[in-house]
Amino acid sequence: MSEITVVHLMRHGEVENPDGVLYGRRAGYHLSELGRQMADRVAAHLEGRDITHVVSSPLERAQETAAPIAKAHGLDIVTDDRLIEAANVFEGKTFGVGDGALRRPANWKHLMNPFQPSWGEPYIEQVVRMMGALTAARDAARGHEAVAVSHQLPIWIVRSFAERRRLWHDPRRRQCTLASLTSFTFKDDKIVSVGYSEPARDLVPAHLLAGAKPVKGKVKAFGA
Asked: Which of 19, 66, 143, 147 lies 20 to 30 Å from 29 when distance is taken between CA atoms?
């Protein structure tokens, strides 16, 4: 008899980031009050589900997002370093609409190869680690469901791989909104479907929704 397991890759909620920097793997970036509401909303959405395993990236914003889900199911949070945000040479810098970051000569050497990409962790390396984290969560929740809290870019890349799409892409077109769930259904060891949902969509600022057009003065933290 086949065994069905579901692993929900969840993107963390909104982060307190008044300076609008690309915070990446930097420590000290916590959920905003709105981000905590998003986490609570998803926890309530998943309350009746058969969640037996909750795992998270080591970064604070992911751990804080996982906390209400783990509490609702009486579970401890497991930390998996493979769920961490993608490395990026522009960490700590601002990349707002029209700020000229991409026109600065000092940045050009990092922008030579968008297919790798040359500015950060290679896409294929993200696939390898994220598939490892995904299968580990599957194994920990065999026959049940797991929640794994991670970050936008790694989630989108592993979904693209599973759906046999190219890995290089336009960041504005990632379908991975704050506090969203990208759900992988396994039949035994094989991924048989990938679903997507946004339980906290009404809490997400319009300019941060998947596919939203950039708005001048509003920072959209790609890959956060």
From this structure: 147
Q: What are the residue ranges of helices labelled H in the chain? A: 33-45, 60-72, 105-108, 123-140, 152-162
Residue found by looking up tokens 């057009």 in the block? 213
Would you say how long the chain is, in residues? 224
What sections of 52-205 are H helices per DSSP? 60-72, 105-108, 123-140, 152-162
* Beta strands per DSSP E along the chain: 4-11, 51-56, 77-79, 145-150, 181-187, 190-197
End-to-end CA distance of the chain: 40
Average pLDDT in the 23-33 region?
Answer: 94
Judge whether 54 and 69 are in contact, CB under 8 Å. Answer: yes
Q: What is the pLDDT of residue 91?
A: 75
For CA atoms 124, 152, 150, 112, the dihedral sign is: positive
Q: For CA atoms 176, 21, 118, 63, give the dihedral sign.
A: negative
DSSP state of 160: H
User: What does pTM read for this prediction?
Assistant: 0.88
Rounded CA separation 70/74 (Å):
6
CA–centroid distance for 90 within its chain: 18
As a whole number of angstroms, the distance between CA 16 and CA 24 comes to: 13
| 77-79, strands of its sheet edge to edge | 77-79, 51-56, 145-150, 4-11, 181-187, 190-197
Both structure tokens of 15: 């982060």
Instruction: Indicate the residue type of 156.
Output: W
